[in-house]
Amino acid sequence: MDTHQSQRGTTLVEAVVAIALLAGSVVLLAGLSHMAVRSVTMARERTLAAVFAVQKLEALCRDVRGLGTSPGDTLAQDTAGFVEYLDARGNVASAGPAPFVRRWSVSAMTSDATLLAITVDAAACRVAQGTGRCGDTATRVRLLGVRSRIAW
Questions:
Q1: pLDDT of residue 6
Q2: For residue 102, what are the β-bridge partners?
Q3: CATH number of the domain within which 90 lies
Q4: How many domains does the chain have?
């Protein structure tokens, strides 16, 4: 008689290895999911910043006769009259922290004084407004337009 019986099933070592592989794959999928959500969020913010920059550039180019040149480095810091904080719909925020900042600069071209260089910078705002540092570089959009002071 044969006293050895065939044992079916898995050993404890095999089960631990299978659980470790499964846990590792779940952790990797969670990391990939986090990266995908972050990429989508940044793409959304950058798209909105581009829309807000285009809106301001068009408004400044439309009203070019009343534009004066901007002082100093208005694109890097908050300068009264050359910065706006916006909500997620592009409306100027009246109070409290805002998700977007939009700055612009107007300067006369050196080659022709009748030409104005208009630069608009828009970005997601990740720090408190009024600190002069608001504007995420990963979502920043900068547009430049040249417009004549003389009506065509």
A1: 59
A2: 84, 122
A3: 3.30.1300.30
A4: 1
Show the tokens assigned to 140: 């920043």
Q: How far is CA 45 from the centre of its chain?
A: 4
pTM for the predicted model, two decimal places: 0.75
Taking a C-beta distance cutoff of 8 angstroms, is the pair 102, 79 a contact? no
Amino acid at 7: Q
pLDDT mean by block of 10 residues, the chain; 152 residues = 62 91 95 94 92 94 82 86 89 80 90 89 74 69 88 59
CA distance 109 to 118: 10
Q: Measured over all CA atoms, what is the biggest interatomic distance in the chain, rounded to whole angstroms?
A: 110
With respect to residue 17, please indicate whether it lies within any of the assigned structural domains: yes
Q: Please, what's the b/e burial string for 6-34 (b: 16 or more CB within 10 A of its CB; e: otherwise)?
A: eeeeeeeeeeeeeeeeeeeeeeeeeeeee
CB 92 within 8 A of CB 81: no
